[in-house]
Amino acid sequence: MNKVILAGRLTKDPEVRYTQTGIAVARFNLAVNRRISKDGQQQADFIPIVVFNKLAEICGNHLAKGRQIIMAGHIQVSSYTAQDGSKRYSTEVIMDELEFVGKKPAETANGNNAATAEQMQFGEEIPPDEDIPF
Fold first, then answer.
1. Paired strand residues for 25
2. Within a domain: residue 130?
3. Which of 1, 3, 9 shows the shortest CA–CA distance to 70?
4. Measured CA distances, 20 to 24, 25, 49, 50, 81 (Å)
5. Measured between alpha carbons, how far is 23 from 100 in angstroms, rounded to an integer?
6. Is 18 inside any structural domain?
7. Which parts of 1-134 are beta strand (E)?
8. In the chain, how many domains are there?
9. Is 133 within the bounds of a domain?
10. CB distance 64 to 12 below 8 Å
11. Which structural domain, as residue segments, surrounds residue 17?
């Protein structure tokens, strides 16, 4: 069985490209914390993630650097011949499922700006607790 479940944060915005046949492909790295080491320092692994099709477009539209996600997928190992003739290997995780976790980085940075935007959308302020009749 080849199944991977990871929780972490994006290290940069996803790069979405399209193949010649029109298939969306998104790539990004996911920083996944390790357990705290003996010396007390937090360490992370930076895992390359590849996403295809509609899920790749969703990643491109809704994920950004710092966004926390939980994802499931499978490991894929590829090999290629470098220009110097040596054989090289690359290991990536192919994402099959995505769950958004926590707030978007912009909401975290701006604090209450999200609530203010909602208030403006409805055209009225939210009354303080003591003015609510129930």
1. 17, 52
2. no
3. 9
4. 10, 11, 21, 17, 23
5. 23
6. yes
7. 4-10, 15-18, 24-33, 44-52, 68-81, 87-101
8. 1
9. no
10. no
11. 4-124
Identify whether 81 is part of a domain.
Answer: yes
Task: Record the tokens describing residue 35, joined without a space.
Answer: 């357990």
Structure tokens at 93: 């995780």
Nearest alpha carbon to residue 99 among 46, 48, 59: 59
Burial call 39-72: b when 16+ CB within 10 Å, e when fewer: eeeeeeeebebebeeebbbbbbeebbebbbbebe
Read off the pLDDT of residues 18-43 as tens digits, 9 standing for 90 and up: 999 999 999 999 999 987 767 777 88
- Tell me the per-residue pLDDT of 90-134, one tens digit each, with 9 for 90 and over: 999 999 999 998 776 655 444 444 444 444 444 444 455 555 554
CATH number at residue 83: 2.40.50.140
Could you say which DSSP state residue 15 is in?
A: E
Task: Using CB atoms within 10 Å of the CB of residue 107, give its burial: 0 to 12 exposed, 13 to 18 middle, 19+ buried.
Answer: middle
